[in-house]
Amino acid sequence: MAGRLKIHVDPGKCQGHARCKALASELFELDEFGNAHEAGDGSVPAGLEDKAWLAEANCPEFAIEVTEE
Amino acid sequence: MSDASIMPAHPPVTDWVNDFDHTDPRWTENPYPIWDQMRAVTPVAHTNRFQGCYMPTTYEAVRQISHDTEHFSSRRVIVRDERPEVARNAAPPITSDPPEHKPAKQLLLPPFTPDAVKKLEPRVRAICSELIDGFLADGKCDAAQAYTKYIPVRTMAYLLGIPESDSDLFVKWIHQILELSIKNESMLVQAVQEMTAYFTPYVEARRNSPGDDLISYLLKARDKNGQPLEDSHVMGTVRLALIAGIDTTWSAIGASMWHLARTPSDRKRLLAEPELMPTAVEEFLRAYAPVTMAREVMKETTVQGCPMKPGNTVLLSFPSANRDPKAFPDADKVLIDRKQNPHSAFGLGVHRCVGSNLARMEITVALEEWLKRIPEFRLDPADKVTWSQGTVRGPRRMQILFG
């Protein structure tokens, strides 16, 4: 069985396209400039795994990393 | 005076790979087969027209140039016949390079976050609804002139705190700057002078009595030394809001509606499954990305094996990148449920469009309001859709029949 997922947004790559927030609002937060970071410690709650992969696949800057713990 | 009489003719293109011209009527009509042909031969094409210009054709080449601010400058963002002298504070931050770019961009970001633009949504919905009221009973309209044009122009006027009734004036300036100036530099100068004259009293009035509009926001902004922005910076950014925020979204809404008018299956599916709207909007943005930017080569470099030399400009084609089959399977098909879609319609790298969240909201609301009131519609077979020329592509005449 696959382990739990963790997400991380590379702040050096994020340019604030906000695609991740639109696709997985539970997993990402935007700062006052609209740049994204992972919510909390980046742990993906059970049931939201597909949204994590979707956010990663749609980031135009390839700034999101999803890892299995 | 017609456009044709003030635009010098360019010889017709016979070799798209070595002599391309983005003002050729065939490019304006349907650029996608041309780009496919160029992409199949080279990741970076070159033309001697426009005093020398490259065009990256693949997603990877566009991405590399977008991320490389060392070799490529944004001081020229439109590829023209002439290279007018570079103006300071032309339209920051779009015309800025590092290190000036970041502070200019940062100060403009907060009013354009998803949450900030959500506050404008009720006004945009009302604008769409009022426009539809104006032509619904006619059973038809030129959607490009009666609907898609006025949504961004009135939204931008509302955001700047200037009268929405001056919309046609803004449209005229944008046409001069983005289309006519490619072949006639005096059009650019004239439009910029008129814009400055128009906005100066508004800027002065807001200085004395600020509101919650974008002009007041710029006047209140302070740089890292606590100093207000120079007047030329404020004016340049107001110009940018009009130039970048109107033609672009007008084109994106128009191209999306053009697709739905000629693709009944997608139109019916969106009506039946409205939850598909966000995915559909991203797909319309990918497939019909309206905006091509420009860069100027500052230092010699190599992109995807192609040497790029200073003195040339670059036609930075996000629309061609979005049609690269190596980056997007079935790139030439419009799939409104496309799951993986990291498209470049709003640019890549530090110059990501500051208004992207506003544009997405406007496109979504425009389509939702139209579909709510006019669920059945099609292109008028007796008429011909015409497209804008130059760096922003979208329908400029689009007769639509309802029902």
Rg calc of chain A: 11 Å
How many domains make up the 3D coordinates of chain B?
1
Name of the top-level CATH class of chain B: Mainly Alpha
Helical content band of chain A? 10-25%
User: What's the alpha carbon Rg of chain B, rounded to whole Å?
Assistant: 21 Å
Query: Given the C-alpha coordinates, what overall shape of chain A results?
Result: globular
The CATH superfamily of chain B is: Cytochrome P450
Distance between the termini of chain B: 37 Å
Spatially, the strands of the biggest sheet of chain B line up as 1-2-8-5-3
**In percent, how helical is the residue content of chain B?**
40-55%
Structural class determined from secondary elements of chain A: alpha+beta
- Beta-strand portion of chain A reads 15-25%
Beta strand count of chain A? 4
> If classified by CATH, what would the architecture of chain A be?
2-Layer Sandwich
Main sheet strand line-up of chain A: 1-4
Give the class-level CATH name of chain A: Alpha Beta
What can you see in these coordinates?
The complex is a heterodimer of chains A (69) and B (403). Chain A is of the alpha+beta class. Chain A has a single domain, classed as Alpha-Beta Plaits (2-Layer Sandwich), CATH 3.30.70. Helices cover 22% and strands 23% of the residues of chain A. Chain A has a two-stranded antiparallel ribbon with strand order 1-4. In chain A, strands 2-3 form a two-stranded antiparallel ribbon. Chain A starts with a strand and ends with a strand. In chain B, a hairpin with a 2-residue loop joins β6 and β7 (306-308). In chain B, α10 crosses α11. Chain B is globular. Chain B has helices spanning 3-6, 25-29, 32-41, 59-67, 101-108, 114-118, 121-135, 143-148, 150-160, 167-178, 185-208, 214-220, 231-245, 247-262, 264-272, 277-287, 318-321, 356-373, and strands at residues 44-47, 53-56, 72-73, 140-142, 293-297, 301-303, 306-308, 313-316, 377-379, 386-387, 395-397, 399-402. Chain B has a single domain, classed as Cytochrome P450 (Cytochrome p450), CATH 1.10.630.10. Chain B has 403 residues and is of the alpha+beta class. Classes of the chains: A alpha+beta (69), B alpha+beta (403).
